[in-house]
Design a protein that fits this description.
single chain, about 130 residues, alpha+beta, 5-stranded antiparallel beta sheet
Length: about 130
């Protein structure tokens, strides 16, 4: 596996099969793990096409495995970036970490995608305030 990210909050590795392996650690790792799993399941149930799919989750080890949403984006117009994150609202989610580091580009279908939902919020009424 190739290591993609290694921070105080998580280690992310890309498997040779293309799947993304994320292990949560640090402060409130169990809460962040549970939230990311809950949000990814919510987004999948709502049919959101521009986020990873949760393939496995292991609460004992605080690990998840997801589909790959492409490579990180280095440059994106601020307006387009804002539109991407706001696009989650129609699926009942606010990202709460709307930064460029959470935008990827999936070459297979030419689509920008969003990743890293450990701080995201599922909106009560399905819409942003």
């Amino acid at each position: 596996m190739n290591q993609v990210k290694d921070t105080l909050r998580a280690t992310v590795r890309l498997g040779y099969d293309g799947r993304v392996h994320k292990q949560f650690r640090g402060p409130k790792a169990d809460e962040r793990f549970a939230n990311e799993v809950r949000v990814l399941r919510h987004l999948e149930a709502r049919g959101c096409p521009f986020v990873p799919r949760l393939l496995e989750s292991d609460p004992a080890d605080l690990k998840i495995v997801t589909t790959n949403c492409g490579s990180r984006v280095d440059h994106l117009d601020a307006e387009r970036c804002r539109e991407l994150f706001e696009g989650l609202h129609e699926f009942g989610v606010r990202h709460d970490d709307a930064e460029m580091r959470n935008v990827t580009y999936r070459q297979s279908d030419g689509r920008f995608c969003l990743i890293d939902f450990e701080f995201a919020t599922i909106l009560e009424d399905g819409h942003a305030d």
